[in-house]
Structure formats: structure tokens, C-alpha cells
Design brief:
The protein has 188 residues and is of the alpha/beta class. It contains 5 helices and 7 strands; from the N terminus they run ββαββαβαβαβα. β6, α4 and β7 form a beta-alpha-beta unit.
């Protein structure tokens, strides 16, 4: 797989100019967005940290000259000033609502967490913007099979079965199927 870091963007004027379909990875701080990108790319391209809130700008990655992955700052817990968090929020909202190349939203969520109003708002936004949307539940290896099934059923009540993927970045389970579906959905 050929992966190239395009650039980081802290303002809309910094967004790269290209015609690649973009796939945005969004979710709470420390949900595993950057780790998921690394697993999908089969190499360490996105910086990961155990400290929530490390991704502070939009990071653009060229994947095989066919797709552009965009790693967005996380929402929720982050030890940053209100002003900084507001700046991130505005940047992400502008990107999601204005970017013409954006074809697919991937909400990355730790499978151990519950669906909240924040996630519901992102789902509604994707529907309003008429963008493809999938939920990727990470860290499935942290639960036993019974707990995993229970959590999965809760998410399926909200989204149905077709929009949900479970993955483990450490064991790479579910990664290949997810990558193939991302390629298909980003072309629509």
C-alpha cells in the first residue's frame, strides 16, 4: 500500500487542493482514530498517543492515489482551553459542512462506551449533509464475547446492522473488510 502524508490543516485555507474522495475519521478523544488509520494503512503514518486530545489539526493522507484519509481532532475529553476547543469545533464543523471532496464519515468509538447525544448529533449531521456514514467500534479485544455481543446489540438498536464494524487494532481483526468497504463507499 502506498501512503503519503499530504499536510496538516489548522484553517480551511490550509486544506489541500486535490480531486481525491475524502474519508473523515471522527470521534471522541482517545477513541482510536489514528490507530485505526495506521491499521488500515498497515503502517504507522498517523501519530498516536495515550494522551487524549493530541490531534489538534486536520491531517490529510493520500492512500494509493485513490482516497484521502482525514484524521480529525477528537471531541469530548481534552485538557485544552475553552478557546482552543471552540477553535477545533469550528474547524471540524466547517470541514464537514463545506468540503466538496468529503464522501464518507467514519465515526470511531470505543466499543466499551455508550452511544450519546454527541454521536447522535454526528449521525444527524451526516444525514443532513447526505454523506455516507459508518460506525467503527474499536478496542473489541478489551471485551469478552458476551460483553461484545451485548454492546453491539445496543449500537444496532440505533443504527441497524449494516453501518457497524467492529475492529481490534492490536489484532487487526475486521480491518481488511472495513478497508474494502471504505473504498466502495468513498466512490459513491
Amino acid at each position: 500500500m502506498k501512503v503519503a502524508y499530504i499536510k496538516g490543516a489548522s484553517t480551511p485555507q490550509d486544506y489541500p487542493f486535490h480531486s481525491l474522495p475524502e474519508v473523515a475519521f471522527l470521534g471522541r478523544s482517545n477513541a482510536g482514530k489514528s490507530s485505526l488509520i495506521n491499521s488500515l494503512c498497515k503502517q504507522k503514518v498517523a501519530h498516536i498517543s495515550k494522551t487524549p486530545g493530541k490531534t489538534q489539526i486536520l491531517h490529510f493522507y493520500n492512500i494509493n492515489n485513490k482516497i484521502c484519509f482525514v484524521d480529525l481532532p477528537g471531541y469530548g475529553y481534552a485538557k485544552r482551553s475553552h478557546k482552543e476547543r471552540e477553535k477545533w469545533k469550528n474547524l471540524v464543523e466547517h470541514y464537514l459542512s463545506q468540503r466538496k471532496n468529503l464522501k464518507l464519515l467514519i465515526l470511531v468509538q470505543d466499543i466499551r462506551r455508550s452511544w450519546t447525544e454527541d454521536e447522535q448529533s454526528l449521525l444527524h449531521l451526516s444525514q443532513f449533509l447526505k454523506k455516507n456514514f459508518i460506525l467503527v467500534l474499536t478496542k473489541e479485544d478489551k471485551l469478552n464475547q458476551k460483553e461484545k455481543i451485548k454492546q453491539l446489540k445496543e449500537f444496532q438498536k440505533v443504527l441497524g446492522k449494516d453501518l457497524i464494524y467492529t475492529v481490534s487494532n492490536t489484532k487487526t481483526s475486521g480491518i481488511q473488510t472495513l478497508f474494502q468497504d471504505i473504498q466502495k463507499l468513498s466512490q459513491n
